[in-house]
Amino acid sequence: MEQWINHIKDPKDLKKIPLEKLSEVAEEYRHFLIESVAETGGHLGASLGVLELSIALHYVLNSPKDKICWDVGHQAYVHKMITGRRDRMNTLRKPHGLSGFPSPWESQHDPFIVGHAGTAISEALGLACARDLKKSKEKIIAVVGDGAMTAGLSFEALNNAGHLKKNMLIILNDNEMSIARNVGAMSRYLNKVLTNPLYNRIRGEVEKQLKRFRRLSKLATSSLEGMKHLFVPGILFEELGFRYFGPVDGHNVTGLVQTLRDVLTLNTCSILHVVTQKGKGCAYAEEDEEKGHGVVPFNVKTGEKIEVKPSQGSTASSVSYTQAFADVLSKHARRDLDVVAITAAMPSGTGLLQFQKEFPDRFFDVGIAEQHAISFAGALARGGLKPVCAIYSSFLQRAHDSVMHDVALQKQRVVIGIDRAGLVGADGATHQGIFDIAFLGSVPGIVLASPIDEYEMDKMLELGLHHAAAFAMRYPRANIPKMFDAFAKKSFDIGEGEILMEGEDVTLLALGSMVEVACKAHALLKKDGVSARVVNMRFAKPLDESLILDSLHNTKHLFTLEEHVFTGGFGAKVLELLERQNIREIPLKRFALPEEFIEHGSREAQLDEFGLSPEKITAGILKELSLKKHFLSE
User: Fold this and answer.
1) Which of 56, 63, 255, 380 could form a disulfide with 385 if both were Cys (CB 3.0 to 4.6 A apart)?
2) C-alpha dist (Å) from residue 110 to 25, 440, 463, 531, 540
3) Cα–Cα distance between 366 and 345 in angstroms, integer?
4) H helix or E strand, kind and range, residue 628
5) Of 32, 28, 46, the residue nearest 100 (C-alpha)
């Protein structure tokens, strides 16, 4: 029997299917989605949770004229399929393939790129205001998870939207999960809402009866206002200026279609509360919602992940930087009762689950609220504790003002573990951690450290916990190289680098993940007769100025290596140092990433593509030396 979804190339095709057949369409999409993500990896649970909602939205709306603003786009896989991209799902998150998030560059059905939480209500409100000024009639929908409702931006947008009262619909997708289980007052409130679904039915009936009597209209109004406090499960939203509907079953596709039609005809500022289950229809995603969030390729029958074999000649250990960070943090917490840990809805991704289990009273998950996490950490420090805040590099962008105003300016002792610093692979442009040195580097007094292994991570964390100001430690989404096991472990202080390999011709000043690359380039250069000094710089701020100047004196040619953009990065800081030293002909070449938003692809392939593999570094150095030699001979 031919499947319905084979005929759906566009939302218009979906509308041709009888309403009573939509449940069959949903099951076909569910099967296809699980099979597809099993092959490519990706975000499975979120898209399964909103599968019926995605179908219902496109059945009722007229996309792309009507706009759907997804809050965090990893829930939009079925939306991609309905809007003509099903035949490309096998390219998901692969180089030059489909993005794991909505993208206007991919489809006119995607109004925005969405990789971070909390943006949809602001975007929907902006579109609604633009629509009204342009005097057009399109529907504007924001699909927001209950986890994203903990984001400060969501609250700001709700406040403004309730004030403006534009014709728009916010769909609250309530699955009690963001990535980890949701925390906080909003989550408790929404759970309480589920116990009282009677409001809309009672309100509608009472309103109809009371308004039969025109002379009692004033009484009707006051009575309705009074009954809100008895029956309204969405009183918070009603008081903010929204008409609240729900909660409704988010997996009853025909019921959703009917509800959406009814709510959208009201042409008002509304919230529809939809209850879903993350991972719906996939047993292993339902059982472990957090593991079902972002998945690697897996066996469809068993749910077991398919292990990716290390590339030939790999020198990586089995221990990730994230795991090493978690291990050393727990070690310091056992020694020092003042050490506390903070995460923003990412206890698993940042490795802090073990800390949470071992020290539940000293662990704080603040929800999707990175700015609050940093300001909160600053206050914990003022209260006499030693907070360590673990946040992905790309998410830390949101907390820049808190770092500046609430931590650095006030000289609070806060350690920031910057996970996923550098290229992140399949998550692509929204998650690349390649700007943190630039946006933190201008913060007065902050320390920017970058360890090469667990020993240095341990030592840097110790330095940070005793440092009387902000201390940030950046580390990549990668496993720790085995090669550093052979190096002698030496103690060091803040701003102190180390010569790992001596050389006479050039110096490779490498930071963090690029130290391994520099060591491999050293061996390749040696084959070409070039003697290279390799320096593990350890710190982008403060720099080991004496070591840099010594290297310049002894080798004459400096090369900086970093997994970060050129602008404002580690190499730029070395360049500034040489300028301050009045070195007129600066013998420096920088190896870094281009100042652009880098799309999805494997980290290893992208390092090579942008000239940061050992082979490309070697070729670049040889070319530079050849040019210098040619210039001098003339």
Assistant:
1) 380
2) 22, 32, 46, 52, 38
3) 7
4) helix 614-633
5) 46
Total domains in the fold of the chain: 4
**C-beta separation of 78 from 35 below 8 A:** no
Catalytic (active-site) positions: 278, 370, 398
**CB distance 108 to 85 below 8 Å:** no
Look-up of token digits 């003002």 = 401
pLDDT of residue 230: 41
For the CA atoms of 173, 288, 119, 342, what is the dihedral angle to 10 degrees? 130
Q: Is the peptide bond before 233 cis (omega within 30 degrees of 0)?
A: no
The answer to whether residue 486 sits within a structural domain is: no
The pLDDT score that the predictor gives to residue 301 is 63
How do strand 339-343 and strand 386-392 relate by DSSP bridges? parallel
**pLDDT of res. 187:** 46
* Model pLDDT, residue 45: 78
Give me the residues paired with residue 275 across strands.
174, 249
Is 390 a domain residue?
yes
Distance (Å, whole) CA 534 – CA 502 = 6
Q: What is the pLDDT of residue 62?
A: 95
Domain range for 624 is 500-633
State whether residue 450 is helix, strand or coil: coil
Residues 182 and 203 in one domain: no
> CA-CA distance, 135 to 146, in Å (whole number)?
32
The whole-number pLDDT of residue 145 equals 85
Shared-domain flag, residues 358 and 280: no
b/e 385-414 (16+ beta carbons within 10 angstroms → b): bbbbbbbbbbbbbbbbebbbebbbeeebbb
Structure-token match 């005793």, residue found: 466
The Cα 288–Cα 411 span in angstroms is 41
CA angle (143 as vertex; 163, 286 as ends), nearest 5 = 140
The position carrying tokens 């070195």 is 583
| Average pLDDT along the chain, 634 residues, taken 10 residues at a time | 84 94 92 87 84 95 95 87 92 87 91 88 94 95 86 88 93 68 49 43 50 48 45 69 86 93 92 85 59 60 62 69 96 97 92 95 93 95 96 95 96 96 90 96 97 97 96 96 91 97 96 97 96 98 97 94 97 95 88 94 92 96 78 47
Tokens of 546: 């004496």
Question: Six-digit token pair at 174?
Answer: 């309530």
* Domain co-membership, 10 together with 84: yes
Contact 116, 420 (CB under 8 A): no
Residue 199 Ramachandran class (φ > 0 left, ψ -120 to 50 alpha, else beta): alpha
**pTM strictly above 0.85:** no
HSE-up of residue 548 (Cα within 13 Å, Cβ side): 31
Same-domain check for residues 327 and 290: no
